[in-house]
Amino acid sequence: MPDELTHFDADGKAIMVDVGDKAITKREALAAGEVKMNPATLKKILDNTMKKGDVLAVARLAGIMGAKQTSNLIPLCHPLPITSVEVDFECEPEKGIVHIGALTKVTGQTGIEMEALTAVSIAALTIYDMCKAIDKEMEIGQIRLLRKSGGRSGTFVRPELNN
Q1: 41-151 — its CATH code?
Q2: Mean pLDDT along residues 122-140
Q3: Annotated binding residue at 131?
């Protein structure tokens, strides 16, 4: 196995990294993001009075489905037999913020970080889509990997979480 995995062959052409010789290990990733909106919009979400229905339930399902489609969305990303995807929300009504977390798991030869990040992104976009008629100024942001474990590169925990 080469010391450095790359998406380019010796001629500089794009390729999917060959992970065939990597060990099969349990891998897990946690990603987060947020949607900022008018507090009145979030109140409607929490009161379940949005015309399009239960925003957080639909966003949860969309995030899970998005994680499962990551290899179709991200070029050169390996399709993975995901064993678990959880998408959760924490709301700050007074600030109009929905915090999104996605935990993804796999037993495989390559990481699951992209699936966690995709789940968060798709959940956030779904919230935006379901609320855009009443709040076009929403902002999606802070999408980041919080931690990951398993695989050759070992465990990563975002430095601010170590405190």
Answers
A1: 3.30.70.640
A2: 98
A3: no
62-106 residue pLDDT tens: 999 999 999 999 988 999 999 999 999 999 999 999 999 999 999
Which residues share a beta bridge with 103? Answer: 30, 86
Where are the chain's structural domains?
Answer: 41-151
Asked if 129 is an active-site residue, the reply is yes
- The catalytically annotated residue of 11, 21, 54, 129 is 129
115 labelled as ligand-binding?
yes
Q: Is 7 annotated as a binding residue?
A: no
Residue 46, C-beta contacts closer than 8 angstroms, at least 6 positions apart: 91, 93
Alpha-carbon distance of 45 to 131, in angstroms, equals 9
What are the φ and ψ backbone dihedral angles of 95, each rounded to 5 degrees? -100, -10
Other C-beta atoms lying within 10 Å of the C-beta of residue 139? 13
* Residue 77, marked binder: yes
User: CA-to-CA distance for 156 and 20, rounded, in angstroms?
Assistant: 23
- pTM of the prediction? 0.90
Q: How far is CA 81 from the centre of its chain?
A: 16
